[in-house]
Design goal:
The complex is a heterodimer. By secondary structure, chain A is an alpha/beta fold. Chain A contains 56 helices and 24 strands. In chain A, the strands form six sheets. In chain A, strands 1, 2, 3, 4, 5, 6 and 7 form a seven-stranded mixed β-sheet that branches. A five-stranded mixed β-sheet of chain A has the order 8-9-14-11-10. In chain A, strands 20-19-18-21-22 form a five-stranded antiparallel β-sheet. Chain B is built from 15 helices and twelve strands. The chains are: A alpha/beta, B alpha+beta.
Chain lengths: 1321, 425
Amino acid sequence: MTDDSFVHLHVASGYSMRYGANSPRALVDRAAHWGQAMVALTDRDGLYGAVKFALAAREAGIRPIFGVDLARTAQPTAGSTAQPVGIRRSAAGRTGTGLTLADRTRATPTRASPARARTPARGGVTVDPHHPRVVLLARGAHGWAALCHVVSAAHAGLQQTGQQSGRQVGRGTPSITLDQIAEVIESTASGSLVALLGPDSDVGRALARRRPDLAAHILTAYLETLGRDNVYLEIVSHRARDAALAASDVDGNPARGSALSSAFSSALAARMLTFARDQRLPAVLTNAVRYVEPSDAPVVDVLDAVRRLVPLDPRHLDRPNAEGYLKSGPAMRQVAREIVALTDSSHPDRLVDRLLGMTSDLAGSVALDPIKDLGIGSVHVPELDVLRETLTTTRNGTTTNLDPAAAPATAAAPGTGDTGDGWLRGRCERALRTTYLPTRPKGDDRTARERLDQELSIISTLGFAGYFLTVADVVALIREMGVRVAARGSGAGSLVNYLLGISGVDPLEHGLVMERFLSPLRRALPDIDLDVESARRLEVYTAVFERFGDQRVTCVSMMDTYRVRHAIRDVGGALGMPKTEIDHFAKAFPHIRARDARNALVELPELRDSGLGRLAAQGRLDNFFSLVEALDGLPRHVAMHPCGLVLSDLTLLDRTPVEASAAGYPMSQFDKDDVEEMGLLKLDVLGIRMQSAMAHAVEEIARVDEVDVVVDDIALDDEPTFDLIRSTHTLGCFQIESPGQRELLGKFGPETFHDLIIDISLFRPGPVKSDMITPFLRSRQGWAAPAYLHENLRPVLAETYGVVVFHEQVLRMVAVMTGCSLAEADEVRRNLGSLDTQNEVRTWFYPAARDQGYDLDTIEEVWDVLRAFASFGFCKAHAAAFALPTYQSAWLKAHHPAAFLAGVLTHDPGMYPKRLILDDARNLGIAILGLDVNTSGATYRVERVSPYDEPPPEILGTPPRQSPPTPGVPDGRAYGIRLSLADVLGISEREVGRIITGQPYASLTDFWSRATASRPVVERLVLAGGFDSIYGLGFSVGVRRRGQVTRRDLLLQVADLDRDSRASARATPTRSTRSTDGTDGTETPQEPDVQLSLGFDPGADSLTTSGLAEMSAADRVRAELEVLGLDVSNHVLDFYDSMLHSLGVVRSRDLLRTRSNAEILIAGVKVATQTPPVRSGRRVIFLTLDDSTGPVDATFFSDVQGPYAATVFGSWTMLVRGVLRRTGPRGVSLRATGAWDLGTVHKVWREALTGSSSAGRALEAVRTLIASTDIPTETEQAQHHRVLVHPSGYRQSPYADVGTPGEDVKRPPSKLWHASPGSSG
Amino acid sequence: MSRSQIRRTSATGGATGGATDAAEIDDSRATILHVDMDAFFASVELLHRPDLRGKPVIVGGAGTRGVVLSATYEARRFGVHSAMPIGRARRLCPQAEVITPTFARYATISTAVMEIFGSVTPYVEPLSLDEAFLDVSGAVRRLGSPRVIGQLIRHRVQSEHGITCSVGAASTKFVAKLASTQAKPDGMLVIPPDRVVSFLHPLPVGALWGVGERTEERLRRLGLTTVGEIAHTPESTLQRALGHALGSHLSALAWGRDARPVDPHAPDRSLGAEETFDRDVDDPTVVRRELLRLAERVGSRLRAHGHVGRTVALKVRFADFTTITRSRTLPEPTDVAREIYATATDLYDALGLQRARIRLVGIRVEGLLASDDAHRQLQLGVPEVGWREVEQAMDKAAARFGSGAVTPARLLDQNRRSEDRGEET
């Protein structure tokens, strides 16, 4: 050992949640920089960063040491013994709409009331108890498994604690007992774990209190558990001031941060060293590292405060100074000298050497080999035995005749030790013979058989048969449950997947290739994603867990890292900023990286010109934003990945630590990338809301029209469907509802399913940026002849008129030009993606193409296309898989618009707020039926209506429903959509369930006594018109009987009822009362309150008239927006009608009739803002407004963003000025030249009108307002802006493709009435 | 400086800003005046910083902490208002000059201004440093109509102190206060009894005394957004919606009925002190130390006024501006800081706070009696000469050597400012 060498055995990275300040890679790189041969990663509570650490160590040429820093508790945590993870899945798994509400109500676990300590009056309970901690290092062949098990055990039994708190601070503090450690060691091997007992351990704390006797006593227990050779004392000095740990007892209660920080003193370190000598125990020196450099230390202060949810205050900080960084060898030797100098050692130098020697000896014995010891890179899939079990069980209710299990398993059943190849072949061939070939033209036999043979041989070479069998098994399982499932991704290119029933797209028919999915040249496990109904996703998970067992299955986690908004919130909280200010700061930013915060303040006009930007420019916020930026990318919260499932054999829990997710599922501490590195089979089961929406539509069609629609059997050439798609009235449809897509559809005019595949592939960032769309459309519309580069490429490119759109075309082009195999061509395609490898490809490509006899010009031209295309194209197999639900959703909309939109409204699959979908329904002639406590359900429901069901227009106040103006758009006038109770603000699932169970209700009193909803919910139901039908409160205008009750009378009655209930509750104190705070406080569904019913006759309420006026139309809309987030009875814009008319504002439906290049005004409610990437590398804002006749889209280029971006992001209703351009038969685009808040404009209008009562004056006032904010010339262009440059040479704004600033547009702003017309303010 | 100040309605008959239409209005019965200094703290500061005249100026706690105590009208134009966190104010108006308050100056001018009021009528009821009710009915014969008196006061304040005030005159306190709010800045509004209804009814309901944000929202749902709508709603309906007491209270106010007289000697029913921390505090040690300081202050002031009280109330305002109060009634009335402190800490401990961040704490002693009237029982086992006598000795020392001459040891070595900021009686 050289003098310089040192090994850090106690190192925390950012994966110690809200504790460590740096990435594992940064730590490894620093260790490598110091020339240290090994380094440990001992994160707190988990191995979240272990795989990334291993990879970084491999790259840096350093041997990794794996460990964990755990809290130790004396008592075993509840429910931690039998199961590896205390899983409570049964209840949480069933939350889909598949079950009745009554089921769900029952399935919800009754809230346990643990005997907790008293709840504080305000501010929440203390988090992060200062338990003593122990560092455990993995040693030897079984070390990794032991480490995984010990971490899993520490997390077991925790999930009950955090769930109800609602805060995502973690699900309690994981902790370990010595018994648990003993169990783990017993189940693996003795000596597989080594414990380091440092100053923060119970031993260290006893010594800090100068109680060596107590320390020795505690130590005995460790020695008994781990064995004498496996316990080390950990000597740490951060050169802290020596202060007695008076405030903290051994268990750390009540613990104080400042007390802890003084534990890192040299004096204590010396005492611990002496104690080790006395006990004849080995000691090692560490630096309890939390950051790479001293300058990172302020970051851990913020993390300490954030972790504990307390203000940044010396009392709450763990560090005494900035010494806890990753020091060099000589620096550590110096620390050792200082410690030893404080002991009574007669040979201090020798003691220093011994301490460092022991440290390096231990390091050498615990360093692991990631490949050998962790099993990184080896593949594990469920044992064939498990799959065979399924095979022999008869399966009923399979929905596809492709299901291989439908045929009896005979000859192909595998023997033990089999790779599964024969079995897989048998299943595929059987499917080919019995179901595939009979439906195909004769000539295809050979092609199909050859293709199958080729695929099977690749699978066999790679040893992946088990993988395919497993996935097929899962798909069959999902189908059996009656859940809609579709495969997506490149897997659709494989015939094996099609034959096994995994994918629904025939690869031969659509010219899809296997190599894009699975290549003999790559050993990585292929990726198959399954789309299932979102509402039933967890049900599917539960079934998979039950099928394969907890030992073989786990969910994948997802590390939520700090981006700017969270960083602002946490730093602001730590600094004690007022909540409203924090909120304002956070929402002012788009969803960018935290480290770009200050750049954004300078670059984005809406920030730069705000008060925030000006304060920042004055340098007042430097400290704040430097902390915000320091948090960038640090893990802040671990959550269940929305779709990843790991399926493995019985060794799974030896290879990954598992904790319980918030929903109670076991979840690996590894993310999806780690899981792949570890060679675990990951299956993505995505919950797709559109699948749920379609399932709901099908149910509604069956219920209302008694027609059974089998979506998967619909022919792909339905003309009305394509009529609808071409009309661009595609709101709600999968993948084709965005403004850009609708514009493209208008220009493209798809006629076949294949067109739809191309359409989806064209509308990707790549093709848009490289402007492939224009040449494609020109050729498609016959304005230009397609160009094919070379005659040999014609067959490859003919389907897309010579334009490269698909990955598959790239593969074939490379193959045609160079004569290589498709597998090799796929490697080429991958290498085109980065600048480094691109040149390598080039040096290979030119001669290879030359050898095939192509001339240099052609090669040059083809190369340019390939290079430009780079990674931008789209996998056709993926697009084909995507196009299926797109087509299916469009079919449903064309044929069953009401049912389809009811599905969309229920499951909210799209990008737009529900109110726009509602508006779309209105425009199709569908009646929107208001909330009604007697007919509304938990979902949006379809009802048949006829024109006679509505009062005549003079009473309704609005014109009767019209059929849609555009040909090809379905007419929905025979149907209505009934609003759902689930959208009522603050309503609980149980309340919805009780309301539905109790239907129908005779009166408000009846409802109050039987539905037992909370008072705020009942009030909201009243305000939104839920009781209108009971009391005949149809409409806001028209003749009313004198003394007729109003919604407001009902509101008063709710107050009376509430008072009476309270009075009777006081009289009979055992009865639980309902809560008033909006939460569902009742424990169990109550029996009708007899006492109350006696007092009130449910049929005839004691309604005394109150003299209150009925709600005006504006009041109603406001109430609807507040309660439901939807404007139901009128469109918000209706209230501005007269002004908009005077201003000559153009409505969406009239845009197509407007002259090109005209400057016009549009107005509407914001439904979407996007900042997509564009060619120039600047930020472009796409704004979509809804003006009650359809959506209107406007584009703000960077030159107009200066004065208007703040309005676009900050306002909800807007007036926009722009220049119209026609782009195709049904396409228009609007280049915006200004935007104003509609409320503000209207206020000016109204004031001018009341002042002068002349419409001309009012108009003038508005025009003056509009003219007063004009675009500053040139200054904006002169502003510096950053551009990200992609390897292929494309430029992108750093603000492209990120969530935009401001509130989520899916909900109307909460304080609406301040901005809406007719308000009092 | 209340929230309602910000509301201004143009439909009030144009009586603002001087005596232009004085002749037409019979103001003889509008004898209650509400006088309110305009942006008082800020105006006083401008006297010392004339260079800042015409610019946005904010008076408030230094740094990023604290709240706006006062802001000039130039700053208010940007949305700044009092009681707003200073950080927010800085963001809304980055160009504003922020001045740390100098309470001694305000107190001096306040005293002088109150003396002007006193020269007009003995019936002066001060509400705070910068506002007071005056009943001028006895001064009419001597000085002229309420309008003339109002102008006189405005003129004297302006000419003697260089700051402006606004005056509202009416026959009730409630209307007078609303009138001065409407008249701001630097104006006067007289509402004679026959104009009360037409003045009140167009106002938003928030103008009514006792209507906070929650009540306003409740009323809005019932379609009641103006005072006039409240007035024309049956009282029983208001009571159903808001409860019995508040319902009738609002009904009365909406018709301008307010029977409270101007009471120059309103007996202190309670006495308290409170303190906003320089930064939000979650350290119980710091909070208890502050409670001790407040208890000492309240105790010594009780003794100075010759009062004792039976109920001790603790007020805690959290970082999010929510406030809770807890109180406990003692078996015996007290003026002993030790007892007040012990009760306040008990109340504080009972909150069981763990992570809550506290912005302000306050102690108030309620149910005051003159200490001579209070009958103090001797208790067994309690020395007859106890803390009360110790504290009386401390009072004497303070009287002789200045305040703080004798302090509990725990409060030593804290170089904190000693102004009575945020204090009220």
